[in-house]
Design goal:
The longest helix has 25 residues. The protein has 2 domains: 122 residues, Peroxidase, domain 1 (Orthogonal Bundle); 139 residues, Peroxidase, domain 2 (Orthogonal Bundle), CATH 1.10.420.10. It is mostly helical. α3 packs across α5, α8 crosses α13 and α12 crosses α13. It has 13 helices and 2 strands. Bound molecules: protoporphyrin IX containing FE (HEM) and 2-acetamido-2-deoxy-beta-D-glucopyranose (9 copies). Its EC number is 1.11.1.7. Keywords: Calcium, Disulfide bond, Glycoprotein, Heme, Hydrogen peroxide, Iron, Metal-binding, Oxidoreductase, Peroxidase, Secreted, Signal. It catalyses: 2 a phenolic donor + H2O2 = 2 a phenolic radical donor + 2 H2O.
Length: 331
């Protein structure tokens, strides 16, 4: 009796140890990484994000998107912030004339450098700024994992391959997330980021007049919204006008993005297909429905997915560097 209980305990401990070891190997980031090296880090970043949002509420959306486009390309390593090069991420198709907020990141970085010279990576600053942008816009808050180091390579061709396009069909979007180590729940919860921010006509005007060669607009688009968008985005226009991603509560981070999908009011094709495509019935539609019914469920899942996205391929230890300027690698 005693012996078998001992054996069981022994295996139990062994299993727990393997489990813990596995966790530490997989995620070397910690919430208190800068506790002693930069004790005021969170206050400094938040103060600058508050300033940026007072100046322009949309900036919260722009900073959140910057973090997403950083993480999908070679992991969250600040590579999206690097200037220059013909094949830089900044010049890649999903990013050029599209990503915003680089100047805000510069301002945050210099405040952080003033307090703790050479200590905090640009990748971590972007992660904290994205979290603060969500919570200051009325969304959930959470403890961010930190300790990422900055990468030295900006790869525009890779960005073109891995960042989802609003014209992608469902299976392509899902596989781009799967390739990044994320799953279907992450696709839907993170798409909820489109509860704030704006998109240019060029990225949805294909839905407004002659959708997929049908000679008619996208039939899943609400007719009132269609008329508004046709006026905003004339066929001979330059495609640079912007429409809000969530018409109901533009700058508020809430679950209305999902309620819009139920009413045919998703702006991008990649938004509306989460509810209206044939593939959605057995995959994403039930998740969308659950976030419509329960805003807390959306917030909880969004936080978990943001943490998973923030954990994509972090550079730690002696990998990478702590950049002095977020725009250039150290010499
Ligand atoms: C599911 C695949 C996704 C696609 C196809 C997609 C596509 C887009 C497009 C085309 C825009 C407008 C860009 C422009 O006008 O130049 C946009 C904006 C935005 N995206 Fe996404 N996105 C996706 C997922 C995400 C994720 C995962 C996040 C963050 C967690 C995110 C956050 C945002 C935000 C906040 C904006 C507004 C930015 C601003 O106003 O500056 N998106 N997205
Ligand atoms: C780091 O700081 C946080 C918040 O101030 C605190 O809760 C935590 O216990 C600290 N961790 C360590 C290891 O000092
Ligand atoms: C940080 O330290 C370096 C030398 O280690 C110095 O050149 C630089 O001016 C310092 N920056 C700030 C903001 O204090
Ligand atoms: C950039 O990404 C492409 C596509 O994966 C790859 O072929 C290329 O080697 C990468 N370039 C650099 C400098 O890492
Ligand atoms: C995605 O991964 C999370 C965390 O492992 C899990 O809770 C969730 O059920 C997964 N979703 C799907 C659709 O497999
Ligand atoms: C719609 O596009 C298709 C394919 O590009 C084209 O053949 C057709 O003439 C267009 N219809 C209209 C009404 O413009
Ligand atoms: C749209 O705006 C960008 C700059 O934001 C500009 O480079 C581009 O030429 C504009 N497009 C057109 C068609 O005017
Ligand atoms: C947003 O939706 C709510 C119902 O969910 C509605 O009462 C409200 O009028 C809508 N606001 C706008 C600006 O569309
Ligand atoms: C998906 O659901 C809609 C509405 O319930 C239905 O009209 C459509 O036929 C379904 N499509 C498939 C492929 O099951
Ligand atoms: C909504 O989701 C939260 C978080 O998962 C859960 O605790 C709560 O019971 C759900 N509420 C309803 C009405 O289902």
């Amino acid at each position: 009796m005693k012996m078998s209980s001992f054996r069981w305990n022994c295996c139990y401990f062994l299993l727990i140890n393997i489990f813990l070891l596995n966790l530490t190997v997989r995620s070397q980031l910690t919430t208190d990484f800068y506790n002693s090296s930069c004790p005021n880090l969170f206050k400094i970043v938040r103060k600058e994000v508050v300033k940026a949002l007072i100046n322009e509420m949309r900036m919260g959306a722009s900073l959140l998107r910057l973090h997403f486009h950083d993480c999908f390309v070679n992991g969250c390593d600040g590579s999206v912030l690097l200037d220059g090069g013909e094949d830089s991420e900044k010049s890649a198709l999903p990013n050029v004339n599209s990503l915003r907020g680089f100047d805000v990141i510069d301002t945050i970085k210099s405040s952080v450098e003033n307090a703790c010279n050479g200590t905090v990576s640009c990748a971590d600053i972007l992660t904290i700024a994205a979290r603060d942008s969500v919570s200051l816009s009325g969304g959930p808050s959470w403890k961010v994992l930190l300790g990422r180091r900055d990468g030295t390579i900006s790869n525009g061709s890779l960005a073109n391959l891995v960042i989802p396009s609003p014209f992608d069909p469902m299976d392509t979007i899902v596989s781009k997330f799967t390739n990044a180590g994320l799953n279907l729940t992450d696709v839907v919860s993170l798409s909820g980021a489109h509860t704030i921010g704006r998109a240019r006509c060029a990225l949805f005007s294909n839905r407004l007049f002659n959708f997929s060669g049908t000679g008619s607009p996208d039939s899943t688009l609400d007719t009132t919204m269609l008329t508004d968008l046709q006026n905003l985005c004339p066929q001979n226009g330059d495609g640079n006008a912007t429409a809000v991603l969530d018409r109901n509560s533009t700058d508020l981070f809430d679950n209305h993005y999902f309620k819009n999908l139920l009413n045919g009011k998703g702006l991008l094709s990649s938004d509306q297909i989460l509810f209206s495509s044939d593939e959605a019935n057995s995959t994403t539609k039930p998740l969308v429905q659950s976030y419509i019914n329960n805003g807390s469920l959306f917030f909880g899942d969004f936080v978990k997915s943001m943490i998973r996205m923030g954990n994509i391929n972090p550079k730690v230890g002696s990998d990478g560097e702590i950049r002095k300027s977020c725009r250039v690698i150290n010499s």
